[in-house]
Amino acid sequence: MSAQPVDLSHAVLGPEGGAPVVLLHGFPLSRDLWHETAAALARSGHRVVLPDLRGHGSTPPGQGPATMEAQAADVGRLADRLGLARFVLGGHSMGGYVALEFVHERPKRVAGLVLVHTRAEPDAAQARSKRHAAAEQVGRRGVEPLAQRMSERMLSPATRRDRPEIRERIRNLILATSPRGVADALEGMAARPDQRPRLGAISCPTLVVAGADDELVPFASARALAQGVPDARLETLPDVGHLAMWEAPAPFARLLTEWLATVSGHGPAHASR
Ligand code: MLT
Fold first, then answer.
1. Which end of the chain is more exposed for a tag (fewer CB within 10 A), N or C?
2. Which atom of ligand 1 is nearest to the CA of 131?
3. For 264, what's the count of Cα atoms within 13 Å in the CB-facing half-sphere?
């Protein structure tokens, strides 16, 4: 049975008719994550679409776990509504899990894939139990303990030392997410499929971005992801944890802009179907 659809609240930047790029934020954040990156891509002529995934930002939750399949369907409906037949799809962490599901189900719609701080393997049993426990804790105690924990772990030691204000910025973003949105996403991630056997079928240009100091998605996972996708390019950013777009905004935006220029057939938006 397919999950109940959710209409994604979103922002659009950049010139109408610019080559379309859809960027999916990670857990438990919102489209604000992409602010600097999207502004840079818009300046280079791209049409950038930033959805808030279900239960995050200003998009309401759905019913039950926010599975990757349900979230990919939400993204597909948004793209249909915006008339985007084919576009570059980028995903950060959980957004990357959604992007991998999307390209598996709708390969013809993806002109290129950008996978940032994410992985293909599913949760091991222990990680799954921790997700269930965290979902239960959020129901009892709210989002604050998670915001405290994650805002620390998302940053590299260098960012924590040199740019402590970023931690507060993430904390505020997490605190703006509802307990229900957080719990549904945790349950959805716990149930996510193993994408590893599907990676070999990805035929679009793919860029994998890793943080050398990412505590949440170890470098080995990002490297295995890049090795699984034919001809994928792997870029590792030094002194970056789990948030390249904030920890190294200029190098990250430059990397994306330069890579996008190499994606052939990534032309202006076309009406869908
Ligand atoms: C994220 O940033 O989206 C999460 O850390 C992903 C995860 O918990 O697996």
1. N
2. 8
3. 1
Closest approach atom of ligand 1 to CA 94: 3
CA 93 / ligand 1 centre spacing (Å) = 5
Whether 22 contacts 266, CB under 8 Å: no
Question: Are the C-beta atoms of residues 6 and 253 closer than 8 Å to each other?
Answer: no
Report whether residue 189 contacts ligand 1, using a CB cutoff of 6 Å: yes
SS3 of 257, please? helix
Q: Nearest 5 degrees, angle CA 227-CA 26-CA 20?
A: 75
* Mutation test residue for ligand 1: of 217, 221, 242, the one with most atoms within 8 Å of CB: 217
| Single-letter residue type at 158 | A
Q: Which residues contact 116 (CB under 8 A, 6 or more apart)?
A: 90, 91, 92, 93, 95, 96, 208, 209, 244, 245
Q: What is the pLDDT of residues 21-65, one digit of tens each?
A: 999 999 999 999 999 999 999 999 999 999 999 999 999 999 999
pLDDT tens readout for residues 190-223:
999 999 999 999 999 999 999 999 999 999 999 9
Look at residues 47, 8, 3 and name the one whose alpha carbon lies nearest to residue 31: 8
* 259 three-class SS: helix
The phi and psi torsions of 19 (rounded to 5 degrees) equal -60, 125
Half-sphere exposure of 33 (CA within 13 A, CB side): 34
Cα distances from 134 to residues 141, 143, 184, 193, in angstroms, run 10, 10, 11, 20
